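Final report, results section. Input specification for complex C-07:
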Amino acid sequence: MSLEITAIFILCTALAVVLSAYDRKVRELNKLKVRKQEFEDKARQRAENIISEARNRALSILEEVKLDAGKEEEGVREKLDEVARLQVIDYKNKLHNISNYIERRLNEEADNFRIALETETIGTQQAVAKKINDKYARLEQELEEYKKHRWEEIESKLAEIIKQVSQKVLGKSLGVQEHSDLIIQALEEAKRKNVI
Amino acid sequence: MSSELWDVIKTKNDLEAAKEQLELLENGLYRRGAGGFERVLESRVREEFAEIIKRKIKKVNNAGINERNIIIHEIKKELTKAKMISITVGIDLPISVINMLHEWIMERMGEGIVINVIKEIDVIAGAKIEYEGRYGDYSWKKLLEAFNWKEIIGNRV
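Structure output:
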């Protein structure tokens, strides 16, 4: 019996110890939660401060930059105007020079062209005159040849016509006896010439 | 025999006809009726030529097939000796002129020469003669061609 009571006592004691330890830990945990909340609040506040400060700083820088940029723009514009003015002057000079050069070259070319044209015209006139003379001579020769050819044709045709007329007239005008005599004459001639 | 044969065969046409008739006679030696020797001789051989053959047969008493065959071959052989003279003239020659030409040739050139008459209007008159590869032109065509017409006419144009 006593053993059982002892045991129960021991167990109760152990339970008390455990509960006590548990309570302590629960308190510690709560403290830690409170501290964590505080820490997070502080950190958030600090971050907000930093951001706010950074924004102000940025705005300040932007203002400064705007001011500087305006100044720089003005300077650049002045420089550009100056450069443009110089360029225009230079361009005008060059244009003037080019214009003079072109005018000079045109005059030279015109002179050369005029000389060449005069020379060519004289040459052409001479060549044309020569061609006309040659053509005339050739035509004259062709005309002579044509006349000669036509005369030959006429003569030839006329001779042929006369020959044919003669053949017909002579052939028809002969009788059988005359033909016969002429054939005998032909045979005798052939005999004399040893053809037969 | 020769002389009487060449009296009858005067032209190239005569010669060719005689050869054909001899062929018919030769084929008729062993036949009777229309194709027989006698009938052919009477009806298909030229009269003057047939007379010559008949006279030859008559000379041989009782001439049989063999004798007739010999006669035909003798005539054929004689005909192979024929020479030809070509005479080109400008008109169609009547028989009388051909006979006259034949006589002239027989007298001056001998027998066995047949005449080949050729007609060419261009010849006009006279003749072109060809004999054994030799040739002579004695036509009026040649005479007219010999004229220098161009010169004659040219002076007048």
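Chain A has one domain: 2-192. The mean pLDDT of chain A is 89. This concludes the modelling results for the funded period.
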